[in-house]
Write a structure and sequence with these properties.
Radius of gyration: 12 Å
Distance between the termini: 20 Å
Structural class: mainly beta
Low-confidence stretches: none
Number of helices: 1
Helix content: under 10%
Largest sheet: 8 strands, antiparallel, barrel
Mean pLDDT: 96
């Protein structure tokens, strides 16, 4: 699992996306540009300890993270909840 600092380095200035339906662009100031099915909204993200906390319009969820090359896995309750590409 990644540390909070490693998560920050991985996501700031990048987009996490499934490549077709949604994408999250992470700004350094904690702003999150969320795009889903052509709709765009401004949301928030933050690091809490070694977790990435994201509020993409559905309430805040916090994840542990692991990385395999360009792919980031976000874990909740011991299972991968989201796996997407960092671009």
């Amino acid at each position: 699992m990644l540390s909070g600092a490693a998560i920050r380095r991985a996501v700031v200035g990048h987009e996490l996306t499934d490549g077709a339906h949604w994408g999250w662009k992470f700004k350094p100031n904690g702003r999150l540009i969320a795009e889903e099915n052509g709709e765009q909204s401004s949301q928030r993200w933050r690091i809490q300890g070694d977790k990435l906390c994201i509020n993409a319009g559905y309430g805040e969820l916090c994840y542990r993270a692991s990385r395999d090359g360009r792919w980031l896995q976000l874990w909740r309750d011991g299972v991968v909840d989201i796996e997407a590409e960092l671009i």
